[in-house]
Amino acid sequence: MFQIRIKIGGDNMGGSQVYVGVDVHKNYSWVCAMDEEGEVLFEKKVRSEELEDAIKEIPGNKVIILEPTTITMPIATKIHKAMNVKLAHPLKTKLIAESKKKTGKVDAKVLADLARANFSA
Known about the structure:
Strand order of the largest sheet: 1-4-3-2-5-6
Distance between the termini: 32 Å
Strand content: 25-35%
Structural class: alpha/beta
Shape: globular
Order of helices and strands: EEEEHEHEHH
């Protein structure tokens, strides 16, 4: 099931900082974007081949954060040329690994929140 939530307008357009967490899987990824206050602006499950276009849909100055995995590295390499991409430090993503509610949607949101709090690297 695909889900999308986008907030358009207001202070979230243009020069606002937007933090994008991406939980990458082999065939799909969950994308979660939040503003500086932690409000979710965009949340969507996308097929792997649509990931770059989905991220480009998100308005604002984006910081994209991914967990470093073997699946993630080719994606990070591809999109880092056009976007500000960071890899989360594995020790700081312990919260994701130990989560009792382990879903791609939750993991993407945690990654975005870690980037927002500058706690990801």
